[in-house]
C-alpha cells in the first residue's frame, strides 16, 4: 500500500520583505520620473514604465514563499515554492536516514545540533511554537531541517521511525 502525506506552510513576511518592496517601488518611481524629465513624453518612457511595473510585480511576488512537505513510502521531500509558480527541491531523504527529530524547544536541541553547517529553514516563522528539527544523514552529509509537521505527517513518521522521534 502506498503512503502519501503532504502539507504546505506559508512563510510569514517580515519587516525585511516589506522594506525591500517599498524600496523597489520607490526606485522604480524615481527612474520613471527621471526618464520623463530627461526624455520628455515619449513612447520609450511608456515602455520603461510598463517594464518596471512588470519587473516590480515579479520581484515583489518572489517574497511569497511556501514550503511543501511530502512523505511518500518512507521518503521525505521538502520543496520551496516561490509565488506559486516556481518550485525548488530543498531536500529528499529516506526516513531511515533521520538521526533524531524533536521540537526546537526541547532539551534534545543542543549546541552540537544547532551548529550543523547545512541548515534548511522551511517554516512559517522560527518563532512558531510547533517548529521541529530533524537531523538527517543524507549520503554521508548531515543536514539540519526545521519544519512544522501536522498530525498526519507526525503519525506517518512515527510509524516509520518511532525510536527517533521525541515529543517532549
Low-pLDDT residue spans: none
Helical element count? 4
Distance between the termini: 31 Å
**Structural class based on helices, strands and sheet pairing:** alpha+beta
General shape: elongated
Rg to the nearest angstrom?
Answer: 22 Å
Mean pLDDT: 89
Which strand order spans the largest sheet, edge to edge or round the barrel?
Answer: 6-8-7-5-9
Report on the biggest sheet: 5 strands, mixed
Question: Into which percentage range does the β-strand content fall?
Answer: 25-35%
Strand-and-helix sequence, N→C? EHHEEEEHEEEHE
Residue share in helices? 25-40%
What does this entry show, briefly?
This protein is of the alpha+beta class. It has helices at residues 15-39, 43-61, 111-114, 151-160, and strands at residues 4-10, 65-72, 75-82, 86-94, 98-103, 119-122, 132-138, 141-147, 165-166. Helix 1 (15-39) packs antiparallel against helix 2.
What does this structure look like?
With 168 residues, this protein is an alpha+beta fold. The chain has helices spanning 15-39, 43-61, 111-114, 151-160; strands spanning 4-10, 65-72, 75-82, 86-94, 98-103, 119-122, 132-138, 141-147, 165-166. The protein has a five-stranded mixed sheet with strand order 6-8-7-5-9, with no helix packed on it. A four-stranded antiparallel sheet has the order 1-2-3-4, with helices on one face. The longest helix is centred in the first third of the chain and has 25 residues, at 15-39. The radius of gyration is 22 Å and the shape is elongated. The model has no long low-confidence stretch (mean pLDDT 89).
